[in-house]
Amino acid sequence: MIEKNNYLFVYGTLLDERNEFAIYLKQNCRFYDKGKLKGRLYDLGEYPGAIADENYPDYVYGNILELKNTAEALQYIDAYEGFGEDQEQPNLFIREIVSVEAENGQMNCWVYLYNLSVEGFRLIESGDYVGYRKNM
After folding, report:
1. CA-derived radius of gyration, the chain
2. Across 75-95, average pLDDT
3. pLDDT, position 135
4. pLDDT, average across residues 107-119
5. What CA–CA distance (Å, rounded) separates 104 from 16?
6. Shortest CA distance to 99 belongs to which of 5, 32, 14?
7. Average of per-residue pLDDT across 48-73
8. Mean pLDDT of the chain
9. Nearest C-alpha neighbor of 12 from the set 54, 55, 45
10. Is 1 helix (H, G, I), strand (E, B) or coil?
11. What pLDDT was estimated at residue 1?
């Protein structure tokens, strides 16, 4: 059962306009605002992984999207993120509602958070995956 929330916070490969899933989101969502969530961002190789942590002093930066058909869109992105009972267990990412800071204040958004150990992976200190990739 998908909780009623029409907002999705994206911070990694879903910001890449060449990614087929980002293209899907662009066609099925509306850009709402830039946002940031308290936590850490790691370079996992081909993609990043965020760990939400309200007590961490830094942020993960990304975009807040307003979903047109929430259940359908999340189901589509779940497959990409490896989330769900039909995916390999434990799931690579988990989908949770977290508090995200938008320009107009705090709001709750769906976000895919990394669900496995980050030991041995590089912390992206800026919390900005797009900027990090440009500087590589």
Report:
1. 14
2. 96
3. 85
4. 97
5. 25
6. 5
7. 96
8. 95
9. 45
10. coil
11. 41
Whether pTM > 0.90 for this model: the answer is yes
What mean pLDDT do residues 10-33 have? 96
Cα distance between residue 102 and residue 106, in whole Å? 6
What are the angstrom distances between the C-alpha of 105 and each of 34, 41, 90, 108?
A: 11, 22, 33, 10
- Cα separation of 115 and 122, whole Å? 16
The domain limits of the chain are 7-134
Alpha helices, DSSP H, located in 11-93:
20-28, 70-81
Measure the CA–CA gap between 50 and 42, rounded to whole angstroms.
6
| Nearest-angstrom CA–CA distance, 9 and 111 | 5
pLDDT of residue 92: 95
CA dihedral sign, ordered 55, 113, 6, 29: positive
Which tokens in the block code for residue 22? 């980002």
Q: What is the token pair recorded at 65?
A: 């999207």
Asked if 114 and 93 touch (Cβ cutoff 8 Å), the reply is yes
Strand, coil or helix: 23:
helix
As a CATH number, domain 7-134 is 3.10.490.10
With a pLDDT cut of 70, the percent of the chain lying above it is 97
Q: Looking at this protein, which amino acid is placed at residue 94?
A: I
